């Protein structure tokens, strides 16, 4: 019998790097599909109802995945769950080419939503488990920066004249499959998988209400701006190049300030950081609403670019701080159901945000988009400030 050696578990830093790398490869696929699928539906002249159903199915799958992921992880563990969800996402992506009927894509996007949140639950619970409280904000901030850069990289692949829609879809499926490699080859430390029946998300909401309110607010506001913002800017008679430049400012601002904000949260009460960051997002949103259509005419493009960059630097940096704050209040055994509960809060907000924003625009006019965003993020600012005053200071031990 051949002699076998037992390798020691990989170091926490190695596991963290593997998890972040795996999710980055997933985000490249997401960046491709976020633009490619709407374009293919438009080329096929799919009815608006079908287009909306395809988009909604992904959100529905995301919500379902928040319940399925903890169930799967309890039974087979994190690495095997990540592999199962990744292969399911790869298969569903390949079937987009084999089943070109737009109506069939509704079911495929639902499966992809379930798979995506399953992989994120494994990754984010692993990040929370392995990152010390004194650096958790920094770790999640670096994770978010890497994900944003990966999404942008995936979107840039669509500019290549050598990649057809068929090959882009195959490439996205390949990315889902390749994401398994860094996660599968590591030997993570033995983790305490959740046992027994799945806990209610409400118990975590009671422990860290500001974190859950923040994740919900991120879903309600950020998806509304990223989804409706380009059309809102086009309504200001801006050229297409100007719209693209201003929208890119959102991502640039968040990438630049995400890590510094995370470091500050590691040194101070994270609720104070959430309060300050959401206050900046609120101010920027109301300034955008005020300067979009001033009495003398539309605001200069440079002014809008600066305000959108300011808004993005705050609003798109909130999620990482909220996740770090919530994980400061749970044990290692609870990181998996907590990750799922936080993603569920975000998913509910993401599903409702564009609907509420467009309803506000329908009732109060074109400029109501950023008034809506300012009101919602202002509510988070007030809530975070009140919770800090009522419950007193709190900072996780390094």
Automatic annotation (TrEMBL):
Boundaries of every Major facilitator superfamily (MFS) profile domain copy: 207-398
Q: Which GO terms describe its cellular component?
A: extracellular region; plasma membrane
Asked whether the UniProt record includes Transmembrane among its keywords, one would answer yes
Q: Which domain of life is it from?
A: Bacteria
Which GO molecular function entries does the Swiss-Prot or TrEMBL record give?
Answer: transmembrane transporter activity
Pfam families annotated for this entry?
A: MFS_1
Matching InterPro entries: MFS, MFS_dom, MFS_trans_sf, MFS_YcaD-like, Vacuolating_cytotoxin
Residues crossing the lipid bilayer are 12-37, 49-67, 79-99, 105-127, 139-159, 165-186, 207-225, 231-260, 272-292, 304-324, 336-357, 369-386
Q: Which UniProt keywords apply?
A: Membrane, Plasmid, Transmembrane, Transmembrane helix
**Would you tell me the protein name for this molecule?**
MFS transporter
Q: From which organism does this entry originate?
A: Azospirillum brasilense
